[in-house]
Structure formats: C-alpha cells, structure tokens
C-alpha cells in the first residue's frame, strides 16, 4: 500500500496516475475527495482530511509500505511552520507505524553554502531532515523552479509580461511538474533503494528568465517580456497577497540564493533528467491555458 499526499496537486496528480498505471494499491489523503477525477475514486482508498492532522495521518499511514510526501503550498506564519512544523504529525505517524520508504518533494540547496540562508528552501531541507529521523529509507526529490509556475502568471502573460526579481540573464534549471511526478512514482514503484539522500530532478536545459519570455513569445505569438523588479517590490506584492512578512521574506531569501547560484551548484551526482523542455511545456500546457 502506497499513501499519496496532495493527490490533486501539481505533482501528486501525476504520481497517482503513474502508480495506478503500474497497478499499485493506493491510499490517498485528500481534503476534498470531490476534486479527485471520477476514474480515480473507484480505484483507491480515500482518507479525508489534512495530512497535517495527527488523527488523519495515524489512520492513513497504518500498514503503509511507502509514502509520497508533499507539504501543501498553504500560507503560514513562517517557512518553518509551513514545512517542518506541518510535517511533525506525519513524521510521528510514519515512525509509529514503521513506514519503510518515504519519497518527499524538496528543493535543491542541500550541502551548498546557501543551505541555512535560503528561506523557504531551507525550511524544505529541514523538513526532509525531520522525515529522516523516522529511520525509513528516504529520497528527497530535489527540485529547482517549476515550469508550471508560469500558470500562475497567465494574466500577466496575456498583458505581455513575466515579472520577477531574479536577474534577466541568470541561467537556471527548471523542471516540469509531470517529470517530477514521474520521477517520484518511479522511486515508489521500484523500492530497491536504501539509505537517505536527495536526488535532483532537473529539466534538460538551463534557461534565463529572458530566455523563458522569448520562448513564450515564439510559441504563442504574443510579445512577452521579462519584467525585472526589485526584491523589495516583489516582497511588497507577496505581502499584498496575504503572506506574512516572514513568509514573504522566505521567498525573497530563496530567490536570492537561486540568483547567487544555489541551484547551479547543488549536487548532480545522481540526477534524474526530465524529458520535457520548456518549449514543449509551453506548447502543451501554457498555450492552451492562455487560449482558455
């Protein structure tokens, strides 16, 4: 039995599809079961609620052979509250029930000079540290920026801009959520691995935000430019959306670390390279979203 958290999320939904295609028995923790596709509901066990709830995870992790763990992108007072604190009930339940394998979504940055000063990324790394205390075999799927983040900017892209504080010419890795889901599912299906380590999941190329804007322009036929903004302006916008000062600063610190090179120097000893290029992702995902 494999337990999947966030089964309707950007990554979790791909994990669920791959595991069902492989014939795996699944138990899904989901706040709103009605959001599960109809063809999924009849093939899985469902535990309704939040995986930040001690009673929910105690029920869900009983008898589990493996767990796919993601902290949801919910606003929280601090980066640590959103990651480490959120994961405490689940960690205790996995330890109590002796879950032998954990695959967790985390960030690049471990074992780099930025590990302890990268805001939200630091919180994510510490979350995996907490999961490791269970004694289970743990793989952290260490991710750079998501190509899928552009879906949050559909309105801005329609206006011809992609805003952000990272320098326009700074080349960085990007990955598609579907490739991250495929990588996680592969580890959950073939549990021949042991030990505890993070595994980078990277896209096939490194691109700057100016490059990304140019590709969006070429594919969609819309003139789109990267609108470089200050970190101060970025933080003000984040707080205007309802984030706390500490949580908004966590994003600032993470993006500064990326701009300084955190994602470029993170260990690539055993990377998983996704097949989806940004151009392909724009053609298949972003362009239909813009049209819609």
Tell me briefly what this model is.
By secondary structure, this protein is α/β, with parallel strands linked by helices.
Strand order in the largest sheet: 3-2-1-4-5-6-10-13
CATH fold-level topology: Rossmann fold
Q: How many structural domains?
A: 1
Name given to the CATH architecture: 3-Layer(aba) Sandwich
Our Rg estimate from Cα atoms comes to 19 Å
Quaternary state of the chains:
single chain
Question: Outline, from the CA principal axes?
Answer: globular
Average residue-wise pLDDT: 94
Describe this entry's structure for a reader.
By secondary structure, the chain is α/β, with parallel strands linked by helices. It has one domain: Rossmann fold, CATH 3.40.50. The protein is 43% helix and 19% strand. The chain is built from twelve helices and 13 strands. It has helices at 12-21, 38-41, 54-60, 79-97, 120-132, 154-158, 177-189, 209-220, 231-240, 245-260, 262-265, 278-291, and strands spanning 2-4, 26-30, 45-48, 66-69, 101-107, 137-143, 145-146, 161-164, 172-175, 196-202, 206-207, 225-228, 272-273. The strands form three sheets. Strands 3-2-1-4-5-6-10-13 form an eight-stranded parallel beta sheet, sandwiched between helices. The chain has a three-stranded mixed beta sheet with strand order 7-9-11. Helix 9 (231-240) packs antiparallel against helix 10 (245-260). The mean pLDDT is 94.
